Amino acid sequence: MVFVVAAVLIAAVTGSVYNATQHVPDFYTEALHVEPTTAHETGEVLEEQVFAFSNQVKKPRPWSLRLTDKQINSWLAADLKEKFPELLPEHIEDPRIAVKGKTLLVGCKYNGQSLNSILAVSLDCFLLEGEPNVVGIQLHNVTAGALPIPLGQLISEIDTYAGKAEIPIRWQQRDGDPVALITIPSTGKDIEGEIRIEALEFKDGEILLSGKTIKTEEELEEEAVAAPQDPPASSPMQESPDES
After folding, report:
1. CB of 107 within 8 A of CB of 118?
2. How many Cβ atoms are within 10 Å of 25's Cβ, its own excluded?
């Protein structure tokens, strides 16, 4: 009798756990609904915006970029697998995002040997004070369906993927949560100066990035040396002595 009760309890717990892993967050359900007829067009608009932005930052000037989560999800649905088939880690499919207030929600399908579920994470993204071009990504909640996942496991996966992509990451704690710190390069090929990120904002449905590209001291000195010098001021003509 004891074994029967134990078996029933194990089955009940197993069924509850399985049902919990099959839960789909509301934001992910909404983000999956991308209109196929407009997805490619919207994705192309996003690519054009990003291309124009990449040209903006190459010259000394202020610049800004505004993207919506709908644009990003359209590109993820229509273009990611076609144009960057090797970008996603193994077992990951259909990534989507949503911006709710100042929080970024990221979800995807996970199809593994022992788990098929929707993985979701809640993030806060911000610029780190005192360190130029350092973006902090604070991890709040990570779930498989409705079940929480230990953050240590996700951090290990992030470190592995970042290492393969040659993205340097360091970690800090903020309010008890792990924070990934990523330094955005300030210089690069064809960039005439140094990039300075001044604002990174998240608000309902939108991501806003702004800053400026400034000339370095070396570039300013080179320009000063190369600039044509003004001719010296001529002295007033002396009067000829009176003829005797």
Report:
1. yes
2. 19
Other C-beta atoms closer than 10 Å to the C-beta of 59 total 13
What are the tokens at 76?
């993820």
CA torsion sign for 206, 64, 134, 94 is positive
* CA R_g for the chain: 28
What's the token pair of residue 46? 């996003």
Q: What is the tens place of the pLDDT at every residue in 81-103?
A: 888 888 888 888 999 999 999 99
Intra-chain end-to-end CA distance of the chain, in Å: 144
| Of 51, 49, 53, 57, nearest in space to 190 by CA | 57
The DSSP string of 46-113 is HHHHHHHHHHHTTSSEEEEEEEEHHHHHHHIIIIIHHH-TTSSPTTEEEEEEEEETTEEEEEEEEE-S
pTM of the full structure: 0.80
Nearest-5° Cα angle at 120, 22 to 209: 155
pLDDT category, 16, cuts 50, 70, 90? very low
161 sits in which H/E element:
helix 151-164
Distance, in Å, from the CA atom of 143 to the CA atom of 149, rounded to the nearest integer, reads: 5
Q: Which amino acid is at 139?
A: L
User: CB–CB of 14/81 below 8 Å?
Assistant: no
Angle at the Cα of 47 (from 45 to 49), degrees rounded to 5? 70
